[in-house]
Design brief:
alpha+beta; SH3 type barrels; 16 helices; 10 strands
Length: 439
C-alpha cells in the first residue's frame, strides 16, 4: 500500500510541476515548437507517400530491404518530427537554456522510442501481435523516460492475493500474459517453418507429414508455456489445485474435444485416412483436403467442404476408395430382351466398357449373366478405373452411354415393363340391381 501511495504522490507532483509551468512563456514556446514539428512531419510524410511508388522503386530489392523501406516511409512523418525536435532541442541546449527545453527533450525521447519500436515491430506479420508488441513496448519506454517505470512496477507488485500457495499480483499477470504471447508467437513461427520443411520432403507420406507437423506444434507450444511460466517465477507445484480442476473439466465439458483430438492422432498414426484419399462417410463423399486437430476437411465434387469430426472416422464405417491403391471397381447392372444372344451381349458389353475413358484394360472388364428376369435377361458388368479423385459417377455415366450406343448399333433391345389393363362389363342382372339401388 505504501508503494501505491508513493506512485500516486509522484504522479501528483509531476502534474503540479506541469501545472505551474503551464503559465510560463517557455512551456508555451515548447508547445508551439512541438506543434510546428508535428505539422511539418505530417505534411512531409503525406507528400512523400503521394510522390513515391515504393512497390516500383523496390521491385528488384531483397525482401528485407523492401519491407524496411515500406516501414520507413510509413513512419516518415514521425521521423521528420524527431529530426526537427532534435535540432531545436540541440539549439536550445547550445544557448544554455536546458530548463526551458525539458518538454522538447521528453517529446524527442518518446517519438524516437516510437519510431524504433514501430520499425522493429512492423516486421511482425500478425496485426494483433504487432499492435500488442508496439503498444506494450512503447508504454514501457514512456514510463521509463518519464521516470515512472520503477514506481509503477513496485505498486503493481504490492497488491496481490494468495491462491494455493501462489501469490498473484497485477505485475505477475502482466508479465505472464506478455511472455506467453511472445513465446507462443515464436513457437507458432518455428512450427510453421518446420511444417513447411516437412511437407517439402517427398519421401514422407502425407499422413506422416501431417502427424509430424502436429506433434512439432504441440511440442513447441508446450515448451513455450513452460518457459513463460518458469521465467516469471511460477512454481508448478503451486498449480496442483488448478490441475485437478482442469482434469474435471476435461472429463465433463471437454470430453468431445479430447475425443476428437485423440481420434485425429490415431488416424494420422495408422494412416487409415490421409490427405488426398477419396472417402465416403455417411452421406458425405469426396476427397480429404486437410486434417486438423479436431476435424477433417472433406471436399465434395460440387465444391462444398464438410468439416467432419475426427471421432466419426473412428466410430463409424468409412469407405476409403484409395486406401491401398487408386484402382477402384464399379458394377453396372442392366437387362436386355430375351431375343438377344447372351454370348453376344457379354462380348458387346465388355468391349463397350473398355472403350470408355479412364477404364483400365488390365484388369479387363467382365460381364456375367446374373439371372432370368420377368421380362429381361439380367447382366452385371464389372470394370476397373483409376484415380477416383477425378470422379466416380462420370465414369459410370460414360460406360452406360457406351453400352447404349453399342446396343443401338447391334439392334439389341432394352426391355421395359408393359402393363395390360382389362375392363370387364357388368352382367345384365348386376346392372338391374345397381339401377334399383340408385332409384
Amino acid at each position: 500500500m505504501d508503494d501505491l501511495q508513493q506512485l500516486t504522490g509522484t504522479i501528483a507532483e509531476l502534474l503540479r510541476t506541469v501545472g505551474r509551468e503551464l503559465t510560463s512563456v517557455s512551456l508555451l514556446l515548447q508547445f508551439g515548437l512541438i506543434l510546428f514539428a508535428a505539422i511539418a512531419g505530417t505534411l512531409t510524410g503525406s507528400l512523400a507517400r503521394r510522390k513515391l511508388d515504393v512497390a516500383a522503386l523496390t521491385l528488384n530489392w531483397p525482401p528485407f530491404l523492401r519491407e524496411l523501406t515500406r516501414l520507413l516511409l510509413a513512419n516518415l512523418a514521425t521521423i521528420v518530427f524527431v529530426l526537427l525536435v532534435a535540432i531545436i532541442h540541440t539549439v536550445m541546449l547550445t544557448l544554455a537554456l536546458p530548463t526551458r527545453s525539458y518538454l522538447l527533450g521528453v517529446a524527442y525521447s518518446l517519438a524516437s522510442a516510437w519510431v524504433v519500436i514501430a520499425i522493429v515491430a512492423g516486421l511482425i506479420r500478425n496485426p494483433f501481435v504487432y499492435r500488442l508488441v508496439a503498444v506494450s513496448a512503447w508504454t514501457l519506454a514512456a514510463l521509463s523516460i518519464l521516470g515512472l517505470l520503477a514506481p509503477t512496477m513496485t505498486a503493481l507488485d504490492s497488491i496481490g492475493v494468495v491462491i494455493g500457495g501462489l501469490r498473484i499480483t497485477p505485475l505477475l499477470l502482466i508479465k505472464t500474459v506478455v511472455l506467453l504471447l511472445l513465446t507462443l508467437w515464436v513457437a507458432n513461427a518455428l512450427s510453421d517453418f518446420l511444417d513447411r520443411r516437412v511437407r517439402a520432403a517427398t519421401d514422407l507420406t502425407p499422413s506422416i507429414q501431417v502427424l509430424i507437423g502436429k506433434l512439432l506444434r504441440l511440442l513447441f507450444i508446450t515448451f513455450a508455456i513452460v518457459i513463460a511460466l518458469s521465467t516469471v517465477g511460477i512454481d508448478f507445484s503451486a498449480l496442483a489445485f488448478f490441475s485437478g480442476a482442469v482434469g474435471v473439466g476435461l472429463g465433463f465439458g471437454l470430453q468431445k474435444i479430447v475425443s476428437n483430438l485423440v481420434s485425429g492422432i490415431i488416424l494420422l498414426a495408422d494412416k487409415s485416412i490421409k490427405p488426398g484419399d477419396v472417402i465416403s462417410v455417411g452421406d458425405s463423399f469426396g476427397w480429404v483436403d486437410a486434417m486438423g486437430a479436431r476435424y477433417t476437411s472433406v471436399v465434395t465434387r460440387d465444391g462444398r467442404e464438410f468439416l467432419i469430426p475426427n471421432e466419426d472416422f473412428v466410430t463409424q464405417r468409412v469407405i476409403n476408395w484409395s486406401y491401398s491403391n487408386d484402382d477402384v471397381r464399379l458394377d453396372v447392372e442392366f437387362g436386355v430382351s430375351y431375343d438377344a444372344d447372351p454370348h453376344n451381349v457379354i462380348a458387346i458389353a465388355t468391349a463397350a466398357a473398355a472403350s470408355a475413358d479412364r477404364v483400365l484394360i488390365k484388369p479387363s472388364p467382365v460381364c456375367h449373366l446374373k439371372g432370368f428376369g420377368q421380362s429381361s435377361l439380367d447382366f452385371i458388368l464389372r470394370f476397373w478405373f483409376r484415380d477416383p479423385v477425378d470422379g466416380v459417377t462420370n465414369v459410370r455415366g460414360k460406360v452406360l452411354l457406351a453400352l447404349w450406343d453399342a446396343f443401338q448399333r447391334e439392334g439389341i433391345q432394352i426391355p421395359y415393363p408393359v402393363r395390360d389393363v382389362r375392363i370387364s362389363q357388368k352382367t345384365a342382372p348386376a346392372r338391374k340391381a345397381a339401377k334399383r339401388a340408385r332409384s
